[in-house]
Automatic annotation (TrEMBL):
Organism: Engystomops pustulosus
InterPro entries per record: PRTase-like (IPR029057), PRTase_dom (IPR000836), UPRTase/APRTase (IPR050054)
Pathway participation: Purine metabolism; AMP biosynthesis via salvage pathway; AMP from adenine: step 1/1
UniProt-recorded name of the protein: Adenine phosphoribosyltransferase
Substrates-to-products reaction catalysed: AMP + diphosphate = 5-phospho-alpha-D-ribose 1-diphosphate + adenine
GO cellular component terms attached to this protein's record: cytoplasm
Domain Phosphoribosyltransferase residue range list: 33-133
Top-rank taxon, per record: Eukaryota
PANTHER family with a match to the protein in the record: ADENINE PHOSPHORIBOSYLTRANSFERASE
Cellular localization per UniProt: Cytoplasm
BP GO annotations: adenine salvage; AMP salvage; purine ribonucleoside salvage
Length: 157
């Protein structure tokens, strides 16, 4: 399957639910991609291709809670690198660093374990949809800058 076919498969697999979880929001449901091994493989292939083209050196992949957890580990495995979690506040054990951010429909806090990323490591953040996560990942940047780490928003569908 070529890249265009993979993109078309993913577009046709995502369902939209208007006014969910609140009025004015269009929620894009990716569960059909997860249910279909061909679609999931296509998603991972496209993410991998994008990362290899745009990021010559990646030390870690970080998944943004929670749908970044669905794609991040598979990508980390393909690259032979580690995967770390960026979770909603209160979900990680041990010492953490935390930032607040705004969603389309409210506010939230995310955190990462203080020992998850070493200073200077290059980290790519994976999420399923840029619109559902941290706006432009500015607030995630605070977490990584505080550790002297280079990061980038690598992939969103």
């Amino acid at each position: 399957m070529n890249e265009g076919d993979k993109r078309a498969l993913l577009r046709s697999s995502v369902r939209e639910f208007l006014d969910f979880p609140s009025p004015g929001i269009c929620f894009r449901d990716i569960t059909p991609i997860l249910k279909d091994p061909t679609a999931f493989s296509a998603a991972i292939d496209l993410f991998e291709s994008y990362l290899r083209d745009h990021f010559p050196k990646i030390d870690l992949i970080a998944g943004l809670d929670s749908r970044g957890f669905l794609f991040g580990p598979a990508l980390a495995q393909r690259f032979g690198i580690g995967f770390v979690l960026i979770r909603k506040k209160g979900k990680l054990p041990g010492p953490t660093e935390c930032v607040s951010y705004s969603l389309e429909y409210g506010k939230a806090e995310i955190e990462i374990q203080v020992d998850a990323v070493d200073p200077g490591q290059k980290v790519v953040i994976i999420d399923d949809l840029l619109a559902t996560g941290v706006k432009n990942y500015t607030d995630v940047n605070i977490l990584f800058i505080s550790k002297g780490t280079k990061w980038d928003n690598g992939c969103s569908m």
